[in-house]
Amino acid sequence: MADLAAADEAWRALHALETPRLAELFASDPERLAKLSTRIELGEGGILFDWSKTHLDDAHLAGFEALAEAMDFSGARENLLSGGMVNASEQRAAEHTAQRGMGSEEAVALANAFHARMAALVEALHKGLFGEIRHVIHIGIGGSALGPALAVEALARHGAMVDVHVVSNVDGCALEAAFARCDPQATMLAIASKTFTTVETMTNAASALAWLETAGVADPYGRVVALTADPEKALDWRVDETRILPFAESVGGRYSLWSSIGFPVALALGWPDFAEMLGGAAAMDRHFASADGRANLPLRAAFADLLYARLRQCQTRAVFAYDERLALLPSYLQQLEMESNGKSVTAEGDPVGGPTAPVTWGGVGTDAQHAVFQLLHQGTHLVPVEFVAAVVPGDDLDEAHHRALLASCFAQGAALMQGRSSEDAARSYPGDRPSATILIDELAPASFGALIAFHEHRTFANAVLMGINPFDQFGVELGKDIARQMEQGGASFDPSTEALMRAAGLSSQE
User: Fold this and answer.
1) What are the structural domains of the chain?
2) Is residue 194 annotated as part of the catalytic site, yes or no?
């Protein structure tokens, strides 16, 4: 149980610490790199997590460890990984790790059963039992779309067994773009919605079904696979029971890639690769469960996150993937971190004691170097930066491409820290700007799974240290409620909104 008085004392002690410059930290501690750079092994490869270019030092690490003890991080972690009630506002567990084999016996058994059902359907589709299926249009939104889209882009850019198109936006242009790339006679629809009532998803699903009907597909409903925690709703929508892939209600949307929501990933990669992805995530789960204090990589990353958000008042955190296959990673992390920890009250409903989730943003190197790095190097904002790269290239071109890519990645981190003085102020770089680097041996299913699980646990660790609930997201509901009022009519709004509605033809009022 958290000791809030001890936590307050830990925060006061942390705020009182001085923060030496990064160059001084390296100069004063020859062991710094070894202390803050850790490798996780994953079978034939691994991932290096280097947090040595952050301002974490022994004093800050000890202070954050005291905070973790005061907030009962060990107890919260055990509660999460054993299937205890961690989502206080909705009175339920958060059992995404059970999808990877760590959780209550019942939750793990249910996940295994659902995985077996999904594997059987994937095999049937690959064997042609549903006819020739070359395309899948995966329709979802939020976590039901971002996770599958990222995984397919990262792991199935070449040699996908089925061509997957992920559509989330209710803007019809997004769905029409998918239609243009698919043959309706060889297309399956995967409809991903936890409740099977999400307005954007079900609107897109109805239009996709109409597209199949218009194209003369004999049995359009026979081309629908439902991915949902409410199978009854899918049955009501006329989806055959054999093509409903359920997942547990206790698996949250932005943590659902490992469940039936990952169906298009398994279809594109094949089940063995999907299983390897689960195995990589499970390896990170085991590390998270067994390592303590600063040795725990997700917890160490959370220490750095809070150092900048709370102690240095940084409002944003930038993520740059120096790998085209991970172009969607910043968008994925935006939802994971900002929807989980973008809260203003604690789990008990009290005001939080300081800033919570920073604004997560980013892009792809080397493109970003010619767009936003000017601000990072010489702007007035202090922005902690995170780089992600892979040692083995994802292309078969001249190795000069990948050498230049990695050199650019490492050079940016070095330049942010080092800086450069000049008599010409316009050419002076202040340096002492923090960065962390995640270097993957090879971007493969196991390493991808471990990377995403790392960020899930990092997000949870941040929440525990701040005393907030990362598993609800009521902030998204108000806008949805008002949108429903607009479509139903009869409600009145502020003058600006009323004028916009009239201009767009959404209002019946003159």
Assistant:
1) 4-92+276-472 (3.40.50.10490), 104-269 (3.40.50.10490), 477-504 (no CATH)
2) no
Contact between 467 and 76 (Cβ < 8 Å): no
Q: Residue 364: what residue type?
A: V
Backbone angles phi, psi at 188, to 5 degrees: -110, 145
Task: Enumerate helices (H) and strands (E) in the chain, giving the number of each.
Answer: 20, 11
For residue 510, pLDDT over 50 is answered with no
Measured between its terminal Cα atoms, the distance across the chain in Å is 58
Asked if residue 99 lies in contact with residue 113, where contact means CB atoms within 8 angstroms, the answer is no
CA-CA distance, 189 to 274, in Å (whole number)? 20
Residue among 85, 82, 75, 86 at smallest CA distance from 104: 82
Average pLDDT over residues 453-468: 98
Q: Which of 339, 343, 386, 456 is catalytic?
A: 339
Name the catalytic one among 381, 401, 480, 487.
480
3-state SS class at 245: strand
pLDDT digits (tens, 9 = 90+) for 258-316: 999 999 999 999 999 999 999 999 999 999 999 999 999 999 999 999 999 999 999 99
Q: Is 339 an active-site residue?
A: yes
For residue 341, give the H/E element and its range: helix 340-341
Residues in the chain: 510
Q: Residue 53's pLDDT band (boundaries 50, 70, 90)?
A: very high
165 is catalytic: no
Active site residue: 31, 158, 370, 423, which one? 370
In terms of Cβ atoms closer than 10 Å to its own Cβ (0-12, 13-18, 19+), residue 510 is: exposed
- Which helix or strand (DSSP H or E) is residue 192 part of? strand 187-192
Rounded CA-CA distance 344/331 in Å is 22
Q: Which is it for the CA torsion 280, 281, 286, 287, positive or negative? A: positive
For residue 490, the model assigns a pLDDT of 79
Is the pLDDT reported for residue 502 higher than 50?
A: yes
Strand, coil or helix: what is 285?
A: helix
